[in-house]
Each structure stands twice: as structure tokens, then as C-alpha cells.
Amino acid sequence: MEETFCGVSSVMESSLYHNVHSILRELDANPQGGSACNKGMLRWNLHNRVDKNPSISVSLLRVLIKELEKAERIDSKIRIIPLLHTLVYTVLQSVFIPEDLYQRMYFCLKSLVTLPKPYCAIALNYARQMKMEQNAPGILYQKRVSAEHNLCNDIYPLQEKVFVFVDPVVFPLSLVSALKADVECADPGRDSIIYKRRVLLHTVLAGLGKKCQVDQLSQSLEHLGEELELHFQDLVTILEQRTEDGPSNVNQYKTRLQEFYQDILTAAKDPSCPASQAETQLPSPEVSFHVWTKEDEIWNELANFALMVPTEQNSACLDEDDLKRTSVVSTDSGIEGDMPISELSSIMLESQGGPEEQSSSQSFYRRVCARCPIAGNRKTLMMKAVKGNGGYSLTKEERNLTARILVMGDDRTLGRLAKTLHTIRKREARHLLLTKRVNMEMYYIPVTDQTLSPVQEGVPEDMLTLAGYLGSVDPWYDCNINRLGAMIIKLAQMKSTQSESSDPNTFLLDIISYYTRVSQHPVHLPIYSVKICFSGLSNTTVEEVFVAQLTMDFPEVKRYRATFKDTIKGSVRYKKYNPQEFHGALVSVNYRKASISDREKEMDMSLSTSGMLISVLPSCRVKSLHSVSIRFQDMNPTRSSTHSFRAVSANIRVLEERTFTVCLDKDRRKTFMNVHSIEVSPCLDPGYSHQPNTKSKYSLGEGSEPLGKYINKTLTLPINTFCGIEQ
């Protein structure tokens, strides 16, 4: 801590300059290169250096500002967003920043507002944060730690929590415990007093700088005792008052902070006792790790979060009871003569207590019909909590709780997440109990089990198509999140082979902390609904959703095609095609064709095919977000081309006495057999589709056309990235 306000040598500054340039060159590197899996390590190493040595933060900020000004001058937009995020995250890690550097950062960010979206939106948001940090140094640190570790106060009641869900299909059970140990390796103890002491120390250092005696302040905070809570509340009040006053009265704020500093030194009970080493590093957020086995597990955890159920009681008192509903019902007629002799004798024995009881217990009583309350019914508990009973408290303030839901897996995992989002919106359509109080943000770290399995013959199916799309939209996401999936698996494998007493690896936790703190700009992945009709007399139907793709296959169609290749002396010989030997199924397709002008046209066609693929990934040529690519497998094996088109919705059915198999999002758990027809269309938000006959509040007056029909009612899966994309 003595080096906090010391200068940095030219050698160190040159080293930081080379580190920043290496990160920028990483953005332009070939993603197929040998170092593709190491992308993101340079950024992590840089922030890790600042975390361990805060004295280099000022020099790093100067380097980042120079590079940001250069990127704007040469119009290198690919570097602007990474530099912006790195700059602000370094400010969050810093202890003391000079006034002139605040001014330079603010004017640099303000000059970027003239750029197009998303650069102007991110720069404007960060410029406001830097202005607030300049007026009240340390307020960003205070708000971040207070929200992530539930340091409740009346002025800033926001609370955040990170929920990590891993798909057991992707992660084998042998690696789950290793992942859990790495994710939950945060500061031991999780005592709120430790975090409040850090906030007090960091804020006073950020505001007073060299006027503050670091060791003496740390020692006084260590022995402050019960008065620490009062000082913490006073500090929050001072910072909030400073933000309301604006840039005026700087000297008054400095004087008040100096008096606050002297009060802490005076109130210390025994400042002569030695104190532990002072720490001002930004602590990791509170993270809970879950293996996503139940489909409603995300809903249950969000309900526990809203009900303020302690973490240690989540599984003990809620999850186990959620599997069953118990009730105690009286089955007797109330007549003594109808009671069995065995039950009658047992009641007689129970009633024969003392002499006084024996005379008063000759009359029998009927058992009361009662329903036992169950803790697992979260919706019932939440409704009781709203009314003020039930034993649980539910916050009345709207959107004060933020749940950061981070899933780790592949396209199958995102398909499950889309289904969960649809289920939550459907539950909340009638009663806004959860989404009214909890702000849900979704994050995605792509990991596939293909890195664990041996290489098979042929080209394996790409299980990370959605991750590739997110990476193409956001290069910084591709660099820091997309390329780390293989490394996460390797670290988990190394952890599983080590002893339990080995030190935890904070790499994964640092990546989760940076990702959930910085990426606040969602990319909306379109969700499609499919109505599956099965063959048979019952004509049963199932409605599902998918976000990546839908595959249709005819199992009874002969799979061997006349494209057997015999490599003889470097030449390829094709077998003669026989249409009688290989034939497909005749299907009818009715669809609404997508167009750039959004003028949809009804089309219909019939063709023979052996399979079909519906891909949801947006096309660069079609600007309409909600359109799918439908591709049919050609029956002539000598032609490599396939019949494909883009459509907004489609209705596909078999014209013969055949059935086909449907698989959603490449997930074998979502495979449906004996299907006769399917209807694919954009998924509507259940919150908008509920009670369609009620009068809309979005109207211009009596007899006018309601404005509600112009609202986008489709449901999308918002995945937070570093730059996002406009919906």
C-alpha cells in the first residue's frame, strides 16, 4: 500500500504499452491460428497486474487514453470498444486518480459521442460514470461492492447476484466438482464487515490521496468495532450528497471527507494493536454454482433470490419439498361404530394418561381436515409474501434485485435457456411476481463436449453455431469469451487430478466477474415456436421453442446414396444413380417468404426430400431478424446443391403415409418421433398474448386504432455481450 501514490518507472510504463498493443493486435489475428485458444489471456493478465499492484493503474490509464485517441483519429472502430471497457474497468480497480487525468478521460469519452451506435451509446454511458467518479472518487467502487455483496443501506438498496448454470450434457460429473471449486473460490468468510472495511478504506484513499495515512487508517478500521456500521452509512450519505451537489463545492466535500477520516482515527478503540494487511482490491461478486438438471431450477433460484431465502436453506427446505404436495385428509365418517377395532383400541390406550385425563377422555374427537403448507411452491410463497404473511419477506421496490444468469454449454444449452425464458414469461403473464422485482440478465460462455471426445470419422456437427454468431457481432466477446471454452475444460481436468488441498484457480472466476460487470449490451437471438402434430387417431400436438435449428429426418428412407467414393490412384468414381433405389418422401410446404422490404408473400410448394434443416441464424442479405433459412436435402445425389429459401413462418406436412423425426437445437433430449406435420413461426411473448380481448392502454382515443399492434410482440433471447446489437 505504500506504493499506491508512488510514480512508475519508464520501464514499467513501456511494459504496459506493449501489453496494450498485444491486446489490440490480438483482435486482428487469424482466429484459426495456433494461438486462438489463448485469446483473452492477455487481457486477464493485464487486469491481474493492476489488481496486485494498483500503483500502475495511473500509467495504464494514460496509455489507454492515448490509444483511444489514436483509434478515433485513424477510424479504427474495432479497437474502440475494447479500449473503452479496459479503461473503465481499470478505473474501477484504481485507488487514486489525479484530477487532470479525470478531465482527460472525460473529454476523450465525450468526443466519441459523435460516432454511430453502439460506440456512441457505450461512450456516453461511460462518460457519465467518469463524471460521477470525478465528483465523488470511489463511488463506482462503493456501489459495485455494495450491490454484489448485499451491503444494505437506505440510499442504495440495489442487490446483485450471479447464478452459474452448467449443462450436465456438456460437463461430465468428474469435472463438475472442479468447476464448482473454481467458481466459488471467492474471499473466504464472506463477512459483510470485511467488504464494508474495504469500501471505507478505498473511498477515503480515492478522495484524499496523499493526505491520507494508509497504514494508520487501515489499522483504525481494523479496530473500529461496532461503530464501523455507522461510519459506513455516513460514508454512503456523504457520497450520495456529493453526487446531488454536482461539480460545485469541491472544497466543502474535501473538508467533510477529511473530518470523516479524523473521526475514524479518533473512534478506533485500540489503534496501537497491529492490523492485518490493508486490501483495496475489487472483490469478486457473490456467485452460486448449479448443475442444471431440473428444467425449473432457474425459476426456483430466482424465486429464492426474490424471497431472500438464505443460500444454505435453498436445497434443504425448498427443493426437496418441491417434488410433492402433501395433505392430511380425514377419511373417517365421524361415527364411533364405523371405526376399526384396532384404531379404536389404539386411541383408547393413548387417551389413558393420568387419573385426571382418564375421566375426561371417554369422548372421541374427529381429526381435522388440514392441508400442510409446502415450502417448495414458490409461487404460493411469493403471493403470500406480497400480502405480508407466509414467513418470507418480498421486497416492495420494483427491479431492485438483479439476477445475472450465466449458462455454460453449447447450442443445446441455449435451447434450454430459451425454453426457460418462455416458461417464466408464461408464468408471469397473469401475475407479475418475479419479473416485477427481479431484473434478469443472461450471459453465455460457450463450452462444448467435443473437446473431450475423440475425433470421429467425417466432419463433426458444429455445436457452437450461436457462439460463432455472437463472436461475429462482437469481436471483443469472441476474443475474451468464445476462445476460452477449451481452456476452461483443460483447467477443470487439471483441477480434478490435483489434491483437494491445492490452491484454487481464480482464472474462471475472474473471467465471470469481468464478463458480468462489463457486458451490459444484449444481442437478441430470435426464438421460434414449433407446433408438432403426431400421427394417429388421437392427433396429439406438442408446442416447443427452439433458438438454433430444427432438423427433420425420415428414418425409413434409405440412407445410402449413390455417391460412394472410391479413391483409386487419386481419382473419384461415382456410382450410377438409380431413382428406384433411393427415394424420399413427398412433403407439402406452405410458407411466408421473407424479403428485405418486409412485404411477406404467401408461397406453397411440394417436393420429395429425405430431410430438412431450419436454421434461425440471421442472414447478412436479409435484414429481417425474424426469418429462418429452410433447406431441403436434394434427392439426386449427383447434385451438391440443395433447395433453400428464407421464410418468416412455414407449415410442413407429409403427403404420404409416412412419419418423420424432429430434433430441436441438436439436443437428443428434444427428439420427437412419429410426427406428421409441423408449424414454425416466431415465438410470441406470452405476456403480450395473454387476454387479447382486453382494451389496450396504447390508443389514441375512442374509435381510434390501438397502437398496441405496432409493438414488437415476439420473444427473443437476450445474451449480454460487450457491444450488443440493436433489436
TrEMBL record:
<dbReference type="GO" id="GO:0007186">
    <property type="term" value="P:G protein-coupled receptor signaling pathway"/>
</dbReference>
<dbReference type="Pfam" id="PF10486">
    <property type="entry name" value="PI3K_1B_p101"/>
</dbReference>
<dbReference type="GO" id="GO:0046935">
    <property type="term" value="F:1-phosphatidylinositol-3-kinase regulator activity"/>
</dbReference>
<dbReference type="GO" id="GO:0005944">
    <property type="term" value="C:phosphatidylinositol 3-kinase complex, class IB"/>
</dbReference>
<dbReference type="InterPro" id="IPR019522">
    <property type="entry name" value="PIK3R5/6"/>
</dbReference>
<protein>
    <submittedName>
        <fullName>Phosphoinositide 3-kinase regulatory subunit 6-like isoform X1</fullName>
    </submittedName>
</protein>
